[in-house]
Fold this sequence. Notes:
The structure is a homodimer of 364-residue chains. Chain A has 364 residues and is of the alpha+beta class. The first copy, chain A, contains eleven helices and 13 strands. Chain A has a seven-stranded mixed β-sheet with strand order 2-3-4-12-5-6-7, with helices on both faces. In chain A, strands 1-13 form a two-stranded antiparallel ribbon. The longest helix of chain A is centred in the first third of the chain and has 19 residues.
Amino acid sequence: MHTVIVDRRELHELARAIIAAAGTPDDMANDVAEGLVEANLCGHDSHGVMRLPGYVSFSQTKAEASRIFNRVRPAARPELMPESRLGLAIRRVDGGWGWGQPAARLATRTVIAQALKTGVATVTISHCNHVGRLGEYTAMIAEAGLIGFATCNAGPAVAPFNGRERLFGTNPFSFAVPRTVGVRGDGPRPILVDFATSGVAEGKLQVAQAKGLPVGDGLLIDKDGQPTSDPAAFYDGGALLPMGLHKGYGVSVMADLLGGGLSGMGFACTPRFGEGNLAGNGFLITAYNISDFVNVSEYVSKVNELYARVRSSQPARGVEAVLLPGDPEWISRELRLREGIPIPEVTWDAISKTAAELHVPLPV
Amino acid sequence: MHTVIVDRRELHELARAIIAAAGTPDDMANDVAEGLVEANLCGHDSHGVMRLPGYVSFSQTKAEASRIFNRVRPAARPELMPESRLGLAIRRVDGGWGWGQPAARLATRTVIAQALKTGVATVTISHCNHVGRLGEYTAMIAEAGLIGFATCNAGPAVAPFNGRERLFGTNPFSFAVPRTVGVRGDGPRPILVDFATSGVAEGKLQVAQAKGLPVGDGLLIDKDGQPTSDPAAFYDGGALLPMGLHKGYGVSVMADLLGGGLSGMGFACTPRFGEGNLAGNGFLITAYNISDFVNVSEYVSKVNELYARVRSSQPARGVEAVLLPGDPEWISRELRLREGIPIPEVTWDAISKTAAELHVPLPV
């Protein structure tokens, strides 16, 4: 497959200009672009700039073509709701059906500030479109020196354990802890857990299908409920399966009940606002302020001891090294910062077409 | 295998009397007995009364025999630490190396009361022995009308993804939401997620080994890092594998960093107090007060709609019905309340021996 190598600054500028040209104020277009390019840098191309053509189409009123994302209001600005009661450790953001990224950033900044006051804090977002990669937000919390946990629901794509109908989203789950005291600066990157609770993310099926490759066993059933490794079966009425059998199913249900439930947007298979919550993510983020629990220097020093112990442990046969969650992302990030971001030609062509339609120039 | 069928009230009284005879005040002996018998009722025999002989031996000073649980102080009472700052949504319990169950119950009652004030709240426990089945505590939160999340770490038994050394505990993870508004009363039982982040719980290896049965593929490696299905390989220097590959590994790491870390007890592979944290569970519990986020009647009604939708969905081939997390536990509980709790004869003999040593009479 042919790929184009793009410098991350050029890619950011292109993404920003496209989102801005779709009617988004500059600061928010910047948030969206940063989220997409960070996903590419971290190796999660399924959440990167390949989303741009879809994002733009969702932001246009003639978007009936997409059943899933059908109502991005590109100029809508997320709002922090007034505190309903003094002393609460929770806050709520109304995303106003604008872009999910600026809403999630507002929620993340808010949960950090609140947890510094109350030790633990939670923020939910209602009327929220696709927030992108959850790890972006939990890592922000960890890079501010706190522990972050986030989850959200999404439109139905995954069968329950022992079932065959699409009733749950790929419902991601993320968690991050700092490896430095206070704001990270130049210190080591956080330990970062970030995964879809389906065995495979839907974006990765798209990638496999584009390449004509099968996916692994145990990830997918076809419309008759039969196991298959053909990604096309998903788009023909099949369903993804949860990761880790009934255990991953449990985490997926939790994401729906916490993210969809406490945001007020409802559950994937019983949405509240008609098609409302199918259109985005019911999002919940929690931060824990380490120093209200334990001595934060000791905590961080223990985390680094754990990190070193795991990294220096004996790998399984045929494996080079044992990594911590997040390491693959940070390794990819270093490499792609240095060498540029590879974009498959077919993706690049689609982005170029979108750019041309909006009269946005491509990088030279 | 021969089994003895015991009524749950008789089993409770026997467990209570044994723990009391080991030097525990009655109210706390009652907490321990209730935790064990509830685990049996819910079908989790690995966390039930089969633990009694071990528990008693851990509570005796000549307990060098057990590397893992070596310091239960049977009369020690857990204490709620004074609030370190006004307005905090977190509290801390010192378990004093007494039984884990009364400590976890104190933490659970505290987190419920605190979340009713602050919307979200978290409680950790330090110096805490085995708390038993996490689902007991998250279900208590849900039965009080809130959403509960709990996790804890444990002594090393599980290899990291791609590794082969025992560096993490079986680190359970639990989550529960109510299906009634406010205190449950006679309403339906909560949706309850509760699992070990290893592919299989260590207690279930013990059960398989006792029966001479292999375990499934992908759960276990031997001391050379080779995949095996022989439970004996674990006790000969092997290791459990995480559930769901790198995803379950991520949840296991999270349990260590949250439970072991924020309790101050340290991590499984880098414990803080010498053998200290190997002896128990670094425990963290969080409660979310639904009504501070959304209308609680609507929330519960949506949860029940989701429940009905999933239960009535098409099952996979060869499966009778699609269940929600927690259903298997509640189904077992109904059955065993009615028909008694089956105890394998070998387990019953061990319990009888412990009872005899402590001059506790067996049920007639």
